[in-house]
Write a structure and sequence with these properties.
Length: 219
């Protein structure tokens, strides 16, 4: 039987799905802007702004749902976590825009060696896609994998920064340091999302392996 809250939950799910797709596209465009010298600045700005507007739309919808339906248990966890996850989407958009600003600030960076950035951006793109998918499927196993990917990004970040200090090319070193910082922050927000997904499914932000397994469908 359809409950009074169900249409609002479906609308919330639809907006969140749209935000996820936009976040993936926004970060991918921004990274391509930097690494491939493409002019995607305006497109990234519009996407980032649209994600931010949807974040406010989610906030208004959630406030309305809390007032009208006073949700409890599973519904409450979903609604509360949607606030946190939609904020993470908005941050993805903001950092993507910041990445395009770096490209605009430093201009042509074709002289720079971006081998480390290529590796870390590939991992970040994968993390965002997995974060969006884990939320859509409420798959806590994927959410845990995101935390492992974030540890890899942190390791690369800490290893690469000291090497940049020793670089003879100040422009390349500064541009790469900014990119690494933004990508590391995107990774942090992906983990923030995974914690929220764990909370929706298990009621715990950092559940045990046993609790994760009990909520994972291996079929």
């Amino acid at each position: 039987m359809t409950r009074l809250i169900d249409p609002s939950l479906e609308k919330l799910s639809q907006i969140m799905s749209e935000m996820g797709d936009m976040a993936i596209e926004c970060v991918s465009l921004a990274v391509d802007t930097y690494l491939e010298g493409k002019d995607n600045h305006n497109e990234v700005y519009e996407l980032s702004d649209s994600i931010r507007n949807k974040y406010f739309e989610v906030e208004d919808l959630i406030f309305d749902m809390l007032l009208k339906y006073q949700p409890v248990a599973d519904d409450f966890r979903m609604i509360r976590s949607s606030t946190e996850i939609s904020y993470a989407f908005s941050r993805f958009g903001r950092y993507a825009y910041d990445i395009t600003e770096v490209r605009d600030l430093f201009g042509d960076i074709s002289e720079c060696t971006n081998a480390s950035l290529l590796e870390i951006t590939k991992k970040v793109k994968h993390m965002i896609k997995e974060a969006v998918l884990s939320f859509a499927q409420l798959d806590v196993r994927k959410a845990v994998k995101i935390q492992e990917d974030e540890a890899f990004i942190d390791k690369m970040y800490k290893e690469r920064l000291p090497k940049l200090i020793e670089s003879n090319n100040t422009k390349c070193a500064l541009a790469e340091a900014l990119l690494l910082r933004y990508l590391e922050r995107i990774g942090d927000h992906a983990v923030f999302m995974s914690d929220a997904i764990n909370y929706i499914v298990t009621g715990k932000h950092k559940p045990s392996e046993k609790r994760i397994a009990s909520h994972t469908d291996y079929s």
